[in-house]
Design goal:
This protein is mainly α and about 260 residues long. The protein is built from ten helices and no strands. It has helices at about 5-25, 30-55, 60-65, 65-70, 75-105, 110-140, 150-170, 175-195, 210-235, 245-255.
């Protein structure tokens, strides 16, 4: 992935994959399985911290998109969109505060702050789901098929994201395995639009030495044919100086008869 968003979601894929492995190996008594569980947890915490570090500045595009929300035709859409953006901004701000507390006072000191931010993310995802359902309803009524598929995909993604945030914030705990699989699914949904596509190779007029040789042979044949035709024309239109004396006398006799 060539963009920050794509790289972040790729890291998120491995982060929630580690959470799924951690849930599958939870409560294991064996030494090997217990080691896998410990390694998966360490890997998940490291990836989560890295994503939180590079999350600074993510709130700027949200702030810049607020004027667009105010231009929506319906007041209900304006309230839903602004509420969703406001709760998402609160998530980023509280998450930054939690990151600062973790790096200044220890990892455990910022856990509750981060969980509070995740509750704001849960609210934002629920509002985005409600807004998407409202848009889908109007598309079904007006029989617009252009953005229907993307709207349904957005509703599914935001619903799964709200479920994950509810578990991570301890608001509604379910299962690490289920949340991990949901995180993998939503990460794939986010990676797909920004995944680079392979361009078709551009071939030149002459791509191999054999083609060059064939073209040179064809040019030689054409030059030989042109020289042969020129020789034949020169022979049929020979000048008088090249004619024999007898032929010249015959020509003179013909002129005298005329």
């Amino acid at each position: 992935c060539q963009t920050y968003e794509g790289r972040d979601k790729l890291v998120r894929l491995f982060q929630f994959g580690s959470r799924a492995v951690m849930g599958l190996t939870a409560g294991a008594s064996g030494g090997v399985v217990n080691g896998v569980h410990t390694n998966a947890r360490s890997f998940m915490v490291a990836l989560s911290g890295a994503r939180r570090t590079f999350r600074w500045g993510r709130e700027l595009p949200i702030v810049l998109s607020i004027p667009q929300a105010l231009q929506l035709p319906s007041h209900v859409d304006q309230v839903l969109d602004l509420s969703q953006k406001a709760s998402l901004l609160m998530f980023f701000i509280i998450d930054h505060i939690g990151w600062l507390r973790q790096n200044t006072k220890g990892m455990r000191s910022g856990v509750r702050t981060i969980q509070t931010g995740l509750k704001c993310l849960m609210v934002s995802s629920l509002l985005a789901t409600a807004y998407g359902i409202r848009k889908l309803h109007f598309q079904l009524v007006s029989d617009e098929r252009g953005e229907r598929q993307s709207c349904m995909l957005g509703i599914l993604r935001n619903g799964l994201l709200a479920f994950q945030a509810a578990h991570l914030s301890r608001f509604w705990e379910t299962s690490d395995v289920l949340v991990g699989l949901m995180g993998i699914a939503t990460s794939i949904m986010d990676i797909a639009p920004v995944w680079p596509t392979q361009e078709e190779p551009k071939f030149s007029m002459m791509t191999s030495s054999s083609e060059r040789k064939n073209k040179q042979a064809k040019q030689q044949d054409e030059s030989i044919q042109r020289s042969d035709s020129a020789d034949s024309q020169a022979s049929t239109l020979a000048p008088l100086d090249a004619m024999s004396p007898k032929s010249l006398l015959a020509c003179d006799a013909g002129f005298e008869k005329l």
